[in-house]
Amino acid sequence: FASGSAPPVIWLQGAVCTGCSISLLNSAAPAIDDILLNTISLKYHPNLMTAAGELAVTTLTGAAEAGAGEFILCVEGGIPTSIDGRYSIIGERDGEPWTMLDAVMELGCKAKYVVAVGTCASFGGVVKPSEYTGVRRLAEVLQGSTKNPVINLPACPVNPIVLVGTLVRLLTSGVPPLDAWSRPTEYYGTSVHHICPRLTTPMVQQIGVFGCYEHVGCKGPHTSFTCPNLKWNNGVNWCIDKTNSLCIGCSSPNFPSTPFYGK
Ligand code: SF4
Ligand code: F3S
To answer: What is the ipTM of this complex?
Structure first.
């Protein structure tokens, strides 16, 4: 990965579908190769690195020690806490399982910045309802032990523009203004509804046709995110426009506890 002088980033995965990592790879401006080669020094990423086993664990701990106080810790997914965190094991240290829970607690207080990537890390998301694994959100696990507030970047998956934009913001000017849920107000300061181009169109009674979906359960009025402005797929479309579906509230703290369709 990028030159040694680039700011170190360590990316950990707990209970995940890996969708947020895929979303990172979809970054278009800047493209992912530009990010990895010229912007950050990604020291550890379970999917993107070639190292495995002992080498991977050694690289991870070495990167944290070498960059102590300066690295950015990105956490994707919820953090299982049941049975001492053994539902999510990163590797072994001293012949013992090294869990995601251990790693987050150890590295979280050393990092300069900590970023919860996606809704599962931010709020528990789709993995939280499991009573067996005892998934907790990142800020709950770290409980104020970090140098700076944990920055939540919810959405399922994270929007690559929001992720890369926040990383660049951290590297250039530090922690951005945050809302009550510790989300950057630049991206989460308005509701989807407020800036939706369907706001003044006729209410319709079914999705798939042009119009406003408020009467068929659109969560846009209760969801803070800037999807209509940023869009997805390199600015091509988003959930409502050019897709003709509704907002299911994927960046909300209670996602997915409400039905996707209907009230
Ligand atoms: Fe609001 Fe949804 Fe209607 Fe858009 S489609 S105006 S987000 S209720
Ligand atoms: Fe999520 Fe709603 Fe945007 S479902 S991607 S916040 S339009």
So the answer is: 0.95
